[in-house]
Design a protein that fits this description.
Radius of gyration: 25 Å
Number of domains: 2
Strand order of the largest sheet: 4-3-2-1-5-6-7-8
Mean pLDDT: 93
Number of helices: 13
Oligomer: single chain
Length: about 400
Amino acid sequence: MRSIWVVAHRWFGLATAVFLFIAGLTGAIISWDHEVDEWLNPQLYKAKTQSLDNDLVSPLALANKFEAENPQLMVSFMPLNIEADHSLLMTVMPRPLPETGKAAPVDFNQVAIDPATSEVQATRMWGQISLSRENILPFLYKLHYSMHIPDGFGIELGILFMGIIAIVWTIDSFIALWISFPKAKSWKKSFRFRWKKGGYKLNFDLHRSGGVWLWGFVLILAVTSISMNLNNEVMRPVISVFSELTPTPFDQRTPTALDEPVNAELTREQILPLAREQADKMGITDPAGDIFYASHYDVYGVGFYRPENDHGDGGLGNPWLYFDGKSGEYLGGKLPGQGTAGDIFIQAQFPLHSGRIIGLPGRVMVSIMGLMIAIFSVTGIIIWAKKRRARVSTRINQALSMSSSLH
């Protein structure tokens, strides 16, 4: 039986090694995506014009002016507060063309606005395949979860593919733990590193013993990877077997095609008072910090947080409330720590995957784990290559021996 699991681990490992190596290295970097991106691209984050706060145009006014000057675009995500000396960095998407209903062609999906002058100071296409200074962080981020595999058949094929890789990785994690303890009497060997031996023995220990020591963290990353990529397809159906899940507006609506966006009938200014009223009813005291419009679902979302906690570090994230883009009807929300056991489990997936659930120490740990996953991939391939050479050598020697015996 053990031999079967060894073979399964070998082929599962080989099938996922390259992709996990890339995902591990990119994950180690994108744990610090905002900080590194701002360092590399100050033109996107730092305001060109230094002004006093009372000279700045409000974020909503800036967004409205941009849309008026660019009627083919809509602002799909924007912060409602601007950090001192920073630009307003917004995500934009194409509006539908009146004659076809299809998305208008666009050259960028992120725009930085100078809050003192209302002028566009920089744009970029987030996720573009490019290693330029401007695009390297978004490129690595999208590479991490989709390998930049293009969409097809109305499906985000890269996200689907990496979700399948995550499923195989999860299954293989249990197989790896099982075969790491071949004998009950010698279990201590599975925790040992033969540092002084070096070479292949150390390589083997880094792969096996390193995996044993970090197994729990590896499993968390593997399972949360499934949630990140296949939440509706796999994770929610599985969790619903054990716990009731509160439906979200995105579960209850059928999205339009990727190239068929929808214009909102209500404005951001109409949604925000509704969101504040609903937040007060629910005991949410933090101010509204972000607003987005999910065009393909015709849903607005408003996030609540204090300016210093825009990433929701140190917990299950920030609360979000959702509203219909036509009627303004409240559609539900995501309230960290509230709901069924299944709801809370789902809420914990991104904070666990990113390490943000425990703030800065968690992000450091995720970066280290990214490097370790890359190491496990490389050491696994080295082990396979050495054993394969040994098997080939044995077969050749056996063939030569048989040949000589016949003569």
